[in-house]
Specification:
- The chain has a two-stranded antiparallel sheet.
- The chain contains two helices and two strands, in the order ββαα.
- The radius of gyration is 20 Å and the shape is elongated.
Length: 69
């Protein structure tokens, strides 16, 4: 089993059997972990700032209430 920290918020778990060595998994995962870290940092930073577009679920509570009247 190989564990990697992605962007300090996600844990990547790679399971492999005895036909593969930990060294080979670490070698193959090095670039993947770097790319995933950049991707998740970008995703998490997008959620931190308010969006200029209206929220997708804005007004959904009112519409749901209308269904049950």
């Amino acid at each position: 089993m190989y564990l990697a920290d992605i962007a300090h918020r996600v844990i990547l778990v790679v399971l492999f059997d005895n036909r593969t060595t930990l060294g080979l998994v670490r070698l193959k995962m090095r670039q993947t972990v770097a790319e995933l870290s950049l991707l998740f940092v970008h995703i998490f930073s997008r959620g931190a700032t308010p969006s200029s577009t209206p929220h997708l679920l804005a007004g959904a509570d009112d519409e749901i209430d209308k269904l049950f009247q």
